[in-house]
């Protein structure tokens, strides 16, 4: 096998996923990178130590294992650099700390991941940053919210739980007129289905816990930046002393090899389930961007190459007092679906979501929003289990 991987530039997605990050010729021909456990790194002499004139200087600043994963993510994102952090939430908070200072104003989409909102409303506010939430469907009109001290616009497409689509290119163009940094939580789509930097995003964020891992056993986040913003992101990463572990990096890199195949299965199965739900009279509506009935479908169809396995639906109730009891009955009757946070693994999950913290875009009032993660099980078995849930909810 030739050491040159120039041929990868024109290869298909699954081929790239099989070969990015590590070149076997760099390590005795072994197809996977070594797992390098390191804190201390030795220098050959005092001058080298003073100038740090060698590839590796300390464990927090990278190892061959973590670098292999960073190179793989950069290949997928088209980014200038990637940092690894211990969780998806850290992947959001680190760039916020990198690009925001006391006295700055930040615009955060109101459909944001709930722990991100908690960070903004507590620690970020305490540090002197003014946080303002905006409607996810605002598009280019976000420019009217930008102030002289607005430094960052955070996006998420689709939105957590209610799946609102954002016009990322329009938002980015408006933000860049005022020199704002645009960040995007792109966990749902991954760079396989939405290549964020091509749409004007400066910093793209992923909970690698989800689809890159794929097996519900690793916590990690990745943050990738374009060339303009990479130096600031990298410096913040070093200053904060936050890094990804080599064992976890190896597992995420291993997960990437099959991510394309898994995502395709999630996509097809979830869309089948969503269409089945949409046809039911005991479902108020299905919140899935790939459905033509969904308000943001046109943006999804224009900008995205696919959809993942996560979406929501509204379980209606005749009176408000029955919303939660019906939802609990539905969830408690499920046998195949697990009741647990997170998603992106091989197993199906269901969650009753809480939208009470919304400021601008309120949640539905006619029923409970139940989020589903459609796993890799047979669709027929998934539908049978959902039937159990609907039968139980009908008794309430």
UniProtKB/TrEMBL annotation:
GO terms for biological process: L-cysteine catabolic process to pyruvate; transsulfuration. The modification N6-(pyridoxal phosphate)lysine is found at residue 210. It is an enzyme of class 4 (lyase). Coiled coil: none annotated. It catalyses: L,L-cystathionine + H2O = L-homocysteine + pyruvate + NH4(+). Its EC number is 4.4.1.8. It comes from the Bacteria. GO terms for molecular function: cysteine-S-conjugate beta-lyase activity; pyridoxal phosphate binding. SUPFAM superfamilies: PLP-dependent transferases (SSF53383). Gene3D superfamilies: Aspartate Aminotransferase, domain 1 (3.90.1150.10), Type I PLP-dependent aspartate aminotransferase-like (Major domain) (3.40.640.10). It holds the Pfam family Cys_Met_Meta_PP. The keyword Lyase applies. Keywords: Lyase, Pyridoxal phosphate. Its cofactor is pyridoxal 5'-phosphate. Belongs to the trans-sulfuration enzymes family. This is Cystathionine beta-lyase. It comes from Rhizobium rosettiformans.
């Amino acid at each position: 096998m030739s050491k040159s991987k120039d041929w990868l530039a024109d290869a298909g997605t699954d081929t790239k996923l099989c070969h990015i990050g590590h070149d076997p010729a760099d390590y005795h021909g072994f197809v996977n990178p070594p797992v390098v456990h390191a804190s201390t790194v030795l220098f050959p002499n005092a001058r080298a130590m003073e100038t740090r004139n060698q590839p590796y200087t300390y464990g927090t600043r990278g190892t061959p294992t973590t670098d292999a994963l960073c190179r793989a993510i950069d290949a997928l994102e088209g980014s200038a650099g990637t940092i690894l952090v211990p969780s998806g939430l850290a992947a959001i908070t680190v760039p916020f700390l990198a690009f925001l200072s006391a006295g700055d104003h930040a615009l955060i989409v109101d459909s944001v991941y709930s722990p991100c909102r908690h960070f903004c409303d507590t620690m970020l506010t305490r540090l002197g940053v003014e946080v303002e939430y905006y409607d996810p469907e605002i598009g280019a009109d976000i420019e009217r919210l930008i102030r002289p001290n607005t430094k960052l616009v955070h996006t998420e497409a689709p939105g957590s739980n209610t799946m609102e689509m954002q016009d990322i290119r329009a938002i980015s163009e408006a933000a860049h007129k005022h020199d704002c940094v645009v960040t995007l939580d792109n966990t749902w789509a991954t760079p396989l289905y939405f290549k964020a930097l091509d749409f004007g995003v400066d910093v793209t964020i992923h909970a690698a816990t989800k689809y890159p891992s794929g097996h519900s056993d690793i916590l990690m986040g990745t943050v990738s930046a374009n060339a303009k913003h990479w130096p600031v992101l990298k410096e913040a990463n070093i200053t904060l002393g936050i890094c990804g572990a080599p064992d976890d990096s190896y597992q995420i890199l291993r997960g990437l090899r099959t991510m394309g195949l898994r995502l395709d299965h999630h996509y097809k199965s979830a869309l089948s389930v969503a269409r089945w739900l949409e046809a039911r009279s005991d479902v108020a509506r299905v919140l899935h961007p790939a459905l033509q009935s969904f308000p943001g479908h046109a943006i999804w169809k224009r900008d995205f190459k696919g959809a993942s396995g996560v979406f929501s639906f509204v379980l209606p109730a005749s009176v408000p007092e029955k919303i939660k009891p019906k939802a609990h009955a539905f969830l408690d009757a499920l046998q195949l679906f697990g009741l647990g946070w997170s998603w992106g693994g091989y197993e199906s999950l269901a969650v009753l979501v809480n939208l009470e913290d919304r400021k601008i875009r309120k949640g539905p009032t006619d029923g409970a929003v139940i989020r589903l993660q459609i796993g890799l099980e047979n669709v027929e078995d998934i539908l049978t289990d959902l039937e159990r849930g609907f039968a139980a909810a009908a008794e309430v």
